[in-house]
Amino acid sequence: MRKLCSCGDSMKLALRTVVFAKKVNITNVPVYSCSLCGRNDVFHGVKEDVGRLVGELGTRPAPRSIPFEEVHEWAGVLFRALAQAESLQASDVAKAMEERTNQLLDLWLIASSLGDETWKMELQTRLSQLSAQYIS
Ligand SMILES: [Zn+2]
C-alpha cells in the first residue's frame, strides 16, 4: 500500500494517531508517510470524515481518545488487515474488505426484511465508506 511522494520516494500507508487541539487522540487514522522527507498525508478517502469529526469536537474539546477504526469502515478494514500482518499488504486489505462488505450486506438484508429504515441508512453510509477508497 504505497504511493509516490513529491520528493520522489515512496510513501507507505499506516494507521496513525492524529492529535487534535493537543487533547484529543484520534487513533488508527489511515495516513501515508514518507520516511525520506517526513511528509504525512491523510488517506484521501477518509479526509472528509476526519474533518467532519474534528468539526464536531468544536474548538475546546475535552481530552479523550477516539478510535477511528470504529468511525470509518475503511479504517476498520485496514485495522483488521494489520491484525494479520506487521505492515499493510494489498492482499490482506482486499480480503478484510470483502469480508466486511459481505457482513454489512448481510446486515442490510436483515434491516431490509425488518423494514428498519434508520438501520438501512446507517448501513448504506458504512458501505459507502468502503467504496470511497476507489475514488482516490
Ligand atoms: Zn517524501
UniProtKB/TrEMBL annotation:
It comes from the Bacteria. This is YgiT-type zinc finger domain-containing protein.
